[in-house]
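Researcher: Let's do a round of design. I'm pasting the structure tokens now; please hold your answer until I've finished.
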């Protein structure tokens, strides 16, 4: 019986040594358990890139609700950034075209005649909520009349009557 146990132990130790030294062949290539995060490398990220992004989950990984909130916020901020950039580019294009045509000679832009006619018929001075251009080419909103109306409303009916008496 003792001899059988020694032979069994020798076979187990020998088999373990053969496996450890690679006698039974090599192990197969390890399979990747993570998905490759596919973000565009040739352009800037957009809202749809963030919306489509899904990070792999692990047994003890991240808090999914926090990461989802972060991705939602990142997507919203990207959308706001893209909208602001488009708005600023449009304003820059309009200012550039206006500055380029001021000193230009030749045929006026189509439709400019009707625009000039509308400006000539407009009452002088800014009205409530009317948009005007300042000297630097910027756009401002006339709020003086609105401020006067707000001051009258805040002071009450007595102030309005006194103001009417002075006029």
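Researcher: That's everything. Go ahead.
Model: Designed sequence:
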């Amino acid at each position: 019986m003792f001899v059988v146990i020694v032979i069994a132990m020798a076979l187990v130790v020998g088999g373990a040594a053969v496996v450890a030294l690679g006698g039974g062949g090599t192990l197969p290539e390890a399979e990747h358990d993570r998905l490759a995060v596919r973000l565009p490398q040739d352009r800037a990220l957009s809202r749809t890139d963030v919306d489509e992004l899904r990070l792999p989950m692990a047994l003890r990984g991240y808090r999914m609700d926090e990461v989802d909130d972060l991705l939602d916020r990142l997507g919203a901020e990207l959308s706001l950034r893209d909208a602001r950039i488009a708005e600023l580019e449009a304003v820059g294009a309009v200012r550039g075209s206006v500055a380029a045509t001021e000193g230009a000679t030749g045929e006026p832009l189509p439709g400019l005649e009707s625009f000039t006619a509308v400006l000539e018929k407009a009452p002088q001075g800014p009205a409530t909520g009317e948009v005007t251009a300042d000297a630097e080419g910027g756009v401002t909103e006339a709020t003086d009349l609105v401020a006067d109306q707000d001051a009258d409303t805040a002071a009450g009916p007595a102030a309005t009557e006194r103001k009417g008496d002075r006029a």
